Each structure stands twice: as structure tokens, then as C-alpha cells.
UniProtKB/TrEMBL annotation:
GO terms for molecular function: metal ion binding. This is Succinate dehydrogenase. The chain crosses the membrane at residues 29-52, 72-92, 104-127. It comes from Pseudolysinimonas yzui. The lineage of its organism: Bacteria, Bacillati, Actinomycetota, Actinomycetes, Micrococcales. It is found in: Membrane. InterPro entries: SQR/QFR_C/D, SuccDH_FuR_B_TM-su. The keyword Transferase does not apply.
């Protein structure tokens, strides 16, 4: 009786499939994380603007100018802007993927991406380049402008 040997393949020699990025999973995860962060940011925003100080009647141009003179509030408002806008755009992307098909879907997705980029750019520019002291400052802004 002659022994026949069967070759056992070496481990990990099979061809591995190239993994692609799972954009749907990352989008789903972003919605959950950004949703929690947005709740914290929004309640902080409402607390400072509506409940502390004189409430809603104190919100005017000088109040906003004073807040945007502080780098903390610029970063805070920018995080709120970016998280909220991308969160909303991601939700719209999901709706477009569910209901639009063919070329119309591509048109909607490109328009959504364009609108998101434009709004993020404009909002970021407003927050980072805001200068309340252009021209003749009002009496309420004079102390802020004199400090610069």
C-alpha cells in the first residue's frame, strides 16, 4: 500500500479581498456622535444666550460682537456650525439616496455638496473675520473697539 500525501495549503496564502471604505457605516456613526455633541453645544448656546445675563432682550449687535471678540466663542460657534451643517447635509444625503435614482440622484448629491461647501466657507469666514469696529462704532461698542 502506497501512501499518498495531500498537500495542506499554508495558512494565509489565499488571496485577500481588498477592503473598501464603508461610507454608510461612517455616515451612520457620524450622525450618532455629532448628534450627542450637538445636544451639548446647543444647550450651552441657549444657556449663555437666553438664560444667563439679561436674557433674549440683551441680544443685539454689541452682544454678538462681544462674544465674537473672544476666541473661545469663535471656536465654540464654529464647532456648532460645522457639526450642525454636516449633520444636516448627511441626513439630506441619506434622503437623496433613498428617493432619487439615476442622474437625478447625482445632480442632487452634487448640489448638496456644493451648497454645504459654500455655507461652511461663508460661515467660517464670518466667524473668523468678524470686525465690529469697521466705521464709527456705536456707544455700546466703543469700549470694545478702544481695547483693540
Amino acid at each position: 500500500m502506497m501512501a499518498t500525501s495531500t498537500a495542506i495549503p499554508a495558512p494565509n496564502t489565499r488571496q485577500l479581498k481588498r477592503r473598501r471604505v464603508n461610507w454608510e457605516m461612517w455616515g451612520w456613526l457620524y450622525m450618532r456622535v455629532s448628534g450627542v455633541l450637538l445636544v451639548v453645544l446647543i444647550f450651552g448656546h441657549l444657556l449663555v444666550n437666553l438664560f444667563l445675563g439679561d436674557g433674549v432682550k440683551a441680544i443685539d449687535f454689541a452682544f454678538v460682537a462681544g462674544k465674537l471678540a473672544d476666541p473661545f466663542w469663535v471656536v465654540y460657534d464654529m464647532l456648532l456650525l460645522w457639526f450642525a451643517l454636516i449633520h444636516g447635509a448627511n441626513g439630506m444625503r441619506t434622503i437623496i439616496n433613498d428617493y432619487a435614482h439615476g442622474r437625478l440622484r447625482i445632480v442632487f448629491l452634487v448640489a448638496l455638496a456644493g451648497a454645504t461647501i459654500v455655507l461652511l466657507t461663508l460661515g467660517t469666514l464670518v466667524l473668523t473675520t468678524f470686525d465690529p469696529c469697521i466705521g464709527e462704532p456705536s456707544a455700546t461698542l466703543a469700549p470694545l473697539c478702544a481695547a483693540q
